[in-house]
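Work Package 3 (structural annotation) set out to generate three-dimensional models for the target panel prioritized at the project kickoff. During this period the team completed the workflow that converts sequence records into discrete structure tokens, so that structures can be stored uniformly alongside our sequence database. As a representative example, we reproduce one entry of 296 residues exactly as it appears in the project archive.
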Amino acid sequence: DGDRLILGRSILTFFYNESASPRSRKPDDVQGASSGAPSSESTMVSFDIGTPSHDAGEQPFSEAAFRELRKANERLSIFYDFGRDVGNILDIDRLLANVARGITKLIPADSGVIFLKRLDEYQPFLCWTAEGFRDVSLAAFSRTALNRAIQQKRGLFVRDTASEPDLSAAESVRQLQIQSTIIVPIVLEKEVFGAFSLSSSGRHADFGPDDFALVSGIAGQIAVALKNAHLAEEIKRTTEEKVRLHKELEIAAHVQKSILPADPPSLPGLDIAGVSIPAREVGGDFFDYIPLGTDS
């Protein structure tokens, strides 16, 4: 209640009143418009979002509009949650599971799959349906559509696969009766880390442009998380390699030191000493004391 949305020179102020019908108010009706508000040249428009009224002369705020508004709010909320998770969750398994749950709430696909790149191949990492998660071996998707999206590094949205000859002829599309599909590669700086795949046979509903836009936005955020995860893994491997190498060099230095003579020989009238100091952990120099005879 009282939330304001500034659009250029216009301000939309939303009031909630269950007993009121939707109506426009005059700029003078808006409360708190003087403190810190735009100049008087701005046009202020406010709306009461309440139960639709059917009074004569008033246009009711339809139930369909309410549903669309509620759905848009859910999309924004889930998109915000994803952005927060990307910054707070370092565990990729947990992050992608949260993503799948969020998508399922808004897009009831017959099948959803998240692919990740493994050994130069894009393999199913997570699979779900409207009923919940399932084993990745049961993942249902169009390999033809997946390959096209990954090769082009661009999202693919097909509302009706019958309109795409190469897709409608694909064996996976025919067997799975895929009617509508969304494939969005997870791309950052021209590097493809994986892809999202959503398929529908029409049992729930065909996908729409809003669904495609939502998945595309999520894929962009997940790409950043996967890139960070890869960098973190690379740093971890590099650190572990440095620790391993350091330990091996310590062992090599100990072995090298052990083969050098511990004490110099004692000869009357002579002070004999020897030392080897490597520039780093180990060196290539060696010395020893070799007796030549009883008088030498």
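The CA atoms of residues 183 and 197 lie 5 Å apart.
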